[in-house]
Fold:
Amino acid sequence: MSITVNPDWWKTLFDEVYLMTDARSVCNEDITRLEVDVICELLPIRSQSKILDLCGGHGRHSLELCARGFSCCTLLDYSQVLIDYAKARAAECNLSIEAVQSDARSTGFPDESFDHVLIMGNSLGYIKGPADSQIMSEAFRLLRPGGWFLVDVTDKSAIKRDFNPEAWHEINDDTVVCRKREIKGDTIHAREMVLNKQKGLIRDQTYAIRLYGSQTLASLLEAAGFQQVTVRTGFSPHASKGNYGFMNNRMLATGRKM
Ligand SMILES: C[S@@+](CC[C@H](N)C(=O)[O-])C[C@H]1O[C@@H](n2cnc3c(N)ncnc32)[C@H](O)[C@@H]1O
Structure:
């Protein structure tokens, strides 16, 4: 069976159900802390640095950075549900971040607004066509000269090596997530079904994600104008070898706007 995908899938998938289906990666505070440790190792962030967490979802990296004293964090995401969640969490934790709903291809922020731009947690490859190049160019435009960009995506070679066409895991005693996957060239097509004992089928959605290798990722940054581009492979925040989809075996690429 071939998995067909609505090209606008990414506009609706990232909601309350996503926070359950991907909770093992995106709602695990130890993992977020580890990822923020890596951000702080790779980038020369100072307490007053202006940091943009682009495609930042429910703000876990911005909130952790803010909790560590990096007090000028801006979160941008397309999902209003996740932006509202981030704002509520910030208020609950008495942390101050700016949270904006917008499209990363065209954010509306003025040129050179930030010292650092981050795209964490495999947030590229969702939109067909030149979207990822547009996002890179937007990140470049938003950085001040001398500023650093960091992008974190899953590693195509690891996904192809460990490819698993079917996977499932329990979210809790009542809910299970089942995923079917197909590889078509450099794109993974997936169907995700979430079943709950009381409510029945609470999600049945397909999605497609283009994968990057280290060379194609480096070329994407260079084409946007970044210099000193370095790609590090083998970043696996999950300690066990379980099936974490796109959230293990990641590559971290950095580049600088000169
Ligand atoms: C897998 S989630 C990762 C979120 C976050 N970076 C993290 O690590 O928790 C991908 C996020 O990218 C966002 N996204 C994808 N394309 C986008 C776009 N064109 N503009 C803004 N946000 C986008 C989605 O809404 C989603 O929240």
About this structure: The pocket of S-adenosylmethionine is lined by residues 10, 14, 26, 55-57, 60, 77-79, 82, 103-105, 120-123, 126 (CB under 6 Å). The longest helix spans residues 29-42. The longest strand covers residues 143-154. The chain has a mean pLDDT of 95.
